[in-house]
Write a structure and sequence with these properties.
- The chain is about 60% helix and about 0% strand.
- By secondary structure, the chain is mainly alpha-helical.
- The protein starts with 11 loop residues before the first helix and ends in a 5-residue tail after the last helix.
Length: about 130
């Protein structure tokens, strides 16, 4: 098991690598930085939130011309990185089921998972730059 990066070992390249890894899969950036327990916790929280959204028949948003808020919703949905990309490719109906009573909850879970993961990517950057323990 490698030790966490020390402040003297931190470079902007390592910080950006941690940030990109954190976006690709929840917790991966923290794992790269040697924060193993934190990484596993973050991976579990974001992944479970994302899977709740899918199970509640939420929509993986896509941009729609003439509806500017769909761009923000898409950004939030894509914040889950690989989870979102794989779900779009593998599930039968990534647009959710509007008739389901849980549809809106599912949408919110999916967007929340993406936004949480984006915040965790920023956290990985701060940890890598030595701004945060």
């Amino acid at each position: 098991m490698s030790e966490p990066l020390s402040l003297s070992e931190t470079t902007p390249a390592k910080a950006w690598t941690a940030t990109v890894l954190a976006w690709v899969f929840p917790g991966l950036g923290h794992f790269y930085l040697g924060k193993r327990r934190r990484a596993l916790f973050y991976a579990a929280v974001v992944t479970v939130t994302f899977l709740f959204g899918i199970s509640l028949e939420g929509r993986l948003d896509t941009p729609e011309p003439g509806a500017p808020l769909t761009y923000l919703a898409t950004f939030a949905s894509l914040g889950s990185g690989l989870l979102s990309i794989l779900a779009r490719l593998l599930i039968e109906n990534p647009r959710g089921n509007v008739l389901s009573v849980t549809y809106e909850y599912g949408c919110m879970f999916l967007r929340t998972a993406g936004l949480m993961n984006l915040l965790l990517a920023l956290d990985a950057f701060d940890v890598a730059m030595g701004r945060k323990p």
